[in-house]
Amino acid sequence: MPGNRENFPDAKRAAGTIRNRGKGLHYVMKRIKNQRKDFHHKLSHDLAEKYDAVCVEDLNLKGIAGGLHFGKRIQDNGYGQFLSMLGYKLEERGKYLIKVDRYFASSKICSVCGNRKKELALSERTYICECGNWMDRDVNAAVNILKEGKKVYKKCA
What we know:
Blueprint: H1 11-50, E1 53-57, H2 61-66, H3 71-76, H4 79-92, E2 96-100, E3 126-128, E4 134-136, H5 137-156
Parallel strand pairs: 1-2
Antiparallel strand pairs: 3-4
Helix pairs in contact: 1-4
């Protein structure tokens, strides 16, 4: 019979190879997970040592992961794990993790003059304001999150 396994002596060896590939993939994924965790520990340690307060945007990670655009990438980067590590390391040192409200329009506000755009498409990677300010939209948002975080910090301190 042409489709019989006995006619293919390498079939058993191939089946074993396929099983072993699964083990290899598990090893690779575990290694990546450990590398990410190590990186998060080192970065959170450095930030906790260097700064009295760290400002971050309070993101709805489950909502973002459920979306069509960023789903798997958000889950795979370990942002929640990193924030958890950063939070407890700052707390151990008597420092602050300041979470800026997720509805704060950090990307739409000019970090120089405070002008707010009504619309800003995600495809617009450069923020250009009427005041002449232009910068990468993520840098602009980071500056705005820092400014908002400083306001929160002053209220707490």
